[in-house]
Specification:
single chain; alpha+beta; HSP40/DNAj peptide-binding domain; 4-stranded mixed sheet; about 25% helix; about 25% strand; elongated
Length: about 400
C-alpha cells in the first residue's frame, strides 16, 4: 500500500490499540484479531475476511518502524484521519487539501533550505507536482512481513524436523498477476490526473492539491476489475509451505522464510514469513541450553554403596556409575548425550540423583533398617547443629 492510500484510515483503531502502543502490544493485538478472523476459522464469513484483511493491512504499516513513523507524522500534521480523510489546513470538508509540500518541498528543481525533512515526508505521502508526483505515487513498496505459529514436540525440537505449513494470507492475485485488471485487459492511465494521482488548483500565491477522485489517487483506472481480487491485485489464498526446523530450536524462537510474506506493490519484493515455534514439554526430560536434564530416583543403598544404574536418553539408554557415598541431589554428567546443532556444538545429559524414600516397609526391611540405625548410632550426621543445640 502506498502512503497516499493511508488517507482516511485509522490503523490504531483497527487493531484496538492506542497511538502510543509498544511494538509488542501491536503484535499481540494483531495476532489475537488475525486468529479470531482467520478465513480458515470463518469459512464463508465475508465480514470476518474483510476484518482479517483490514487488521493485516494495519499491522503491515504499524509493525514497520519507518512506515509507522511516516504514518504518525501525517496524523500529527493533518489530523488523525477518519471517514472523511485527513484534515488539511485551509481546506473545508471535501474542498481539497493544502499541499505544504508545494511550499517546503522542491520548487523549481531546488529544495528550500531548512525544510528538507518535512518536504521529504510530505512528498512521500502526497507526491511532488509534475512528473515527480507520478513517480512517487507509483513507487514500489516492499510487502509486509507475516508471522504464524507452529507447535512441535520435544524430540522434534532436539533433532530437527521438516513440517508442512498450511497458510492462508494475502498474496499476489493469481488470476490478474497483481495488476487488478481482468485477464485480457490492462489498467489505463487516468486522464484526469495524467497518472500522478493528484489534481491541483491555484489560489493566489498558494497551490492546493488533493487525491484524484476518479482514480482514488492511484494514477490508473481499472475499467474491468479482476473477478478474483475485485481490482486490488491481492487476494487471500491458501498455500502449503515446507518449514525446516533446525536441531536445537528453542521454545518461542522465530524462523525466517525469506520472501514468503505479503506481496510487494508495484513490482517490489515480498515481505518475509516468520514462523514462531512452540515446543511441548517432555514428560521426563528437561533442557538447559544444549544440555538435556533428567531426574533419576535411586535407593539409599545405591547412594551409600555405589553401583551402576541405567539411564534413558533420547536415542536409547546408557550405563552410569554412581560413586560410593554419593549425596542425594548430586548431578552427574554424561558427555555428548545432549543436543547436537548443525554447527558442531554438542550438549550433555545432566542426571540428578534423587533419593527414593519408601512410604511403607515390610517387617524384614524394617528390621534391617533398625539394625543399620543401631550400627550407626555413634555417627552424628548433624554435628554443627548438635553443637548449636548444646550451646557449645
Amino acid at each position: 500500500m502506498s502512503a497516499r492510500e493511508w488517507i482516511g484510515k485509522d490503523f490504531y483503531r483497527e487493531l484496538g490499540v492506542s497511538s502510543d502502543a509498544t511494538a509488542d502490544e501491536i503484535k499481540k493485538a494483531y495476532r489475537k484479531l488475525a486468529k479470531e478472523n482467520h478465513p480458515d476459522a470463518n469459512a464463508g464469513n465475508a465480514e470476518a475476511e474483510k476484518k482479517f484483511k483490514a487488521v493485516s493491512e494495519a499491522y503491515g504499516v504499524l509493525s514497520d518502524s519507518s512506515k509507522r513513523k511516516e504514518y504518525d507524522e501525517a496524523r500529527r500534521l493533518f489530523g488523525s484521519g477518519g471517514p472523511g480523510g485527513f484534515g488539511f489546513p485551509g481546506g473545508g470538508a471535501g474542498g481539497g487539501g493544502f499541499d505544504v509540500g508545494d511550499i517546503f518541498g522542491q520548487a523549481g528543481g531546488q529544495q528550500q533550505a531548512g525544510f528538507g525533512g518535512l518536504g521529504d515526508i510530505l512528498g512521500g505521502l502526497f507526491g511532488r507536482r509534475g512528473g515527480a508526483a507520478g513517480a512517487t505515487a507509483n513507487r514500489p513498496q516492499r510487502g509486509a512481513d507475516v508471522e504464524t505459529d507452529v507447535r512441535i514436540d520435544f524430540t522434534e525440537a532436539v533433532k530437527g524436523a521438516t513440517l508442512p505449513l498450511r497458510l492462508s494470507s494475502p498474496a499476489t492475485c493469481s488470476t490478474c498477476g497483481g495488476n487488478g485488471a481482468k485477464p485480457g485487459t490492462s489498467p489505463r492511465t487516468c486522464s484526469t490526473c495524467q497518472g500522478s494521482g493528484l489534481v491541483s488548483r491555484s489560489q493566489g500565491a498558494f497551490a492546493f492539491s488533493e487525491p484524484c477522485r476518479d482514480c482514488r489517487g492511484r494514477g490508473t483506472i481499472i475499467d474491468d476489475p479482476c473477478p478474483e481480487c475485485a481490482g486490488e491485485g491481492v487476494s487471500t489464498r491458501t498455500r502449503t509451505l515446507t518449514v525446516r526446523i533446525p536441531p536445537g530450536v528453542a521454545d518461542d524462537q522465530r524462523i525466517r522464510l525469506a520472501g514468503q510474506g505479503e506481496p510487494g506493490r508495484g513490482g517490489a519484493q515480498p515481505g518475509d514469513l516468520f514462523v514462531r515455534v512452540h515446543v511441548a514439554p517432555h514428560p521426563v526430560f528437561g533442557r538447559q541450553n544444549l544440555d538435556l536434564t533428567i531426574t533419576v530416583p535411586v535407593s539409599f543403598a545405591e547412594l551409600a554403596l555405589g553401583g551402576t544404574i541405567t539411564v534413558p536418553t533420547l536415542e536409547g539408554k546408557v550405563s552410569l556409575k554412581v560413586p560410593q557415598g554419593t549425596a542425594g541431589g548430586r548431578v552427574l554428567r554424561v558427555r555428548g548425550k545432549g543436543i547436537a546443532k548443525r554447527d558442531g556444538a554438542q550438549g550433555d545429559l545432566l542426571v540428578t540423583l534423587q533419593a527414593a524414600i519408601p512410604s511403607k516397609l515390610d517387617d524384614k526391611a524394617r528390621e534391617a533398617l533398625e539394625a543399620y540405625a543401631e550400627a550407626m548410632s555413634e555417627h552424628d550426621p548433624r554435628p554443627e547443629i548438635t553443637e548449636l543445640l548444646e550451646g557449645r
